[in-house]
Amino acid sequence: MEPLFSPGTGWIEVICGGMFSGKTEELLRRIRRAQIAGQRVLLVKPEVDTRYHPKAIVSHDHTTLEAQPLPNAEALYALSEPYQVIGIDEAQFFDLGIVDVVNQLADEGKRVIVAGLDMDYRGRPFGPMPYLLAIAEFVTKLHAICVHTGQLAHYSYRRAPENDDLILLGSQRQYEPVSRKVFVQLRQREKLFHGG
């Protein structure tokens, strides 16, 4: 359930889950509601995320809102002063400094809504997300549907396992949502195939 924001009362909301689970759609829904309520809203994303548009956040279902691309967490704090509600997409791509910035913004009475992958393609906690989850007052964990079983998908399986870069921006061509059982099976198959 989405909390009702009272200006001057700060808190942190984290929307997390695997790829294709609807994190960005949920972030944009909450931001649009804050705009309808007449609140001053800032929407940001990391500069590295240029998949769909350089200056907008675009969900997989093509919902779009203008956003400010930022190089790092410090840049967010510098922009934040006049805003009541701050939305951050793809938070896993920011440096760990985002944790302190988000905490400071909430301490100053701002509503901070953060969306991001909670785990990387290896099934490990991703970047600053575990820290953001720990300090959030509200956490929403979303799931996609496993493309193999139709069950809840908790993992983002990378179809190109030979590329072991932690950050590989992608879409359904590079990643697919899978359940735990399928993730384990696919990872075991990779180990057999690659000898690791």
Give the rounded overall mean pLDDT. Answer: 88
- Looking at CATH, the homologous superfamily of the domain at 11-143 is P-loop containing nucleotide triphosphate hydrolases
State the order of secondary-structure elements, H for helix, E for strand: EHEEEEHEHEHEEEEEH
Query: Would you identify the CATH architecture of the domain at 11-143?
Result: 3-Layer(aba) Sandwich
Tell me the strand order in the biggest sheet.
5-2-6-7-1-8
Contiguous low-pLDDT stretches (5 residues minimum) are: none
The coarse overall form would be elongated
What is the CATH T-level topology of the domain at 11-143? Rossmann fold
Could you give a short account of the major beta sheet?
Answer: 6 strands, parallel
Secondary structure elements and pairings:
Blueprint: E1 11-17, H1 23-36, E2 41-46, E3 56-58, E4 64-66, E5 68-70, H2 73-79, E6 85-88, H3 97-107, E7 111-117, H4 129-135, E8 138-142, E9 144-145, E10 152-153, E11 155-158, E12 175-178, H5 180-194
Helix pairs in contact: 2-3
Outline of the structure:
With 196 residues, the protein is of the alpha/beta class. The protein has helices spanning 23-36, 73-79, 97-107, 129-135, 180-194; strands spanning 11-17, 41-46, 56-58, 64-66, 68-70, 85-88, 111-117, 138-142, 144-145, 152-153, 155-158, 175-178.
